[in-house]
Amino acid sequence: MSIFGKHWKIGGLIAGPIQRNGAVNGSYSIIFERENGAALESIEAIDWARPSVQRLPVCREGETGLPEGYGFDLANIEYHHGGGYFVATVTTAKQYLGDVTGYQARIEELEGQTAELSGQVTAARTKEAELASAYEEGVESHG
User: Fold this and answer.
1) pTM of the entire structure?
2) Distance between CA 134 and CA 120 in Å, rounded?
3) Which of 23, 35, 47, 53 has the smallest number of CB atoms closer than 10 Å to its CB?
4) Bridge partners, residue 19, by sequence
5) CA 125 to CA 140: how far, in whole Å?
6) Which candidate, 67, 66, 18, 11, places its Cα nearest to that of 43?
7) DSSP character for 26?
8) Helices (H), the chain
9) Residue 39 half-sphere exposure toward CB, CA atoms < 13 A
10) Starting at the edge strand that comes first in sequence, how are the strands of the sheet with 27-33 ordered?
11) Would you say 14 and 36 are in contact if contact means Cβ atoms under 8 Å apart?
12) Within 13 A of 74's CA, how many CA atoms are on the CB side?
């Protein structure tokens, strides 16, 4: 019988609750029970740099999980023999944004528009200078 319940699936492995380690920013403790297939090797095998994290139906809405879009470093794993569970401590490593090719294309499009508008501004300033020069020349000649 599970002590902690099945709250999350991380890298294909069932996990119980996730708690933020209050004193240390970016540090989280995750409970993995042997009863749910957890073993030292299976916890270490999770791709912590880009973990797939899924909330399971029993997990209450608003329950703390791992922050989305981050990779993690596996800092420690403790085994509690009496309860048959592991506590994995992870720390945030890098933030990743997933597939950003659409954003990159939009940035390139906007950079092209910026260059075009910059050219138009330069042309307008040149025309403005020519008009100012012609105005001065006209004023001086009709004085």
Assistant:
1) 0.65
2) 21
3) 23
4) 29
5) 22
6) 11
7) T
8) 40-44, 101-142
9) 3
10) 18-20, 27-33, 85-95, 70-80
11) yes
12) 19
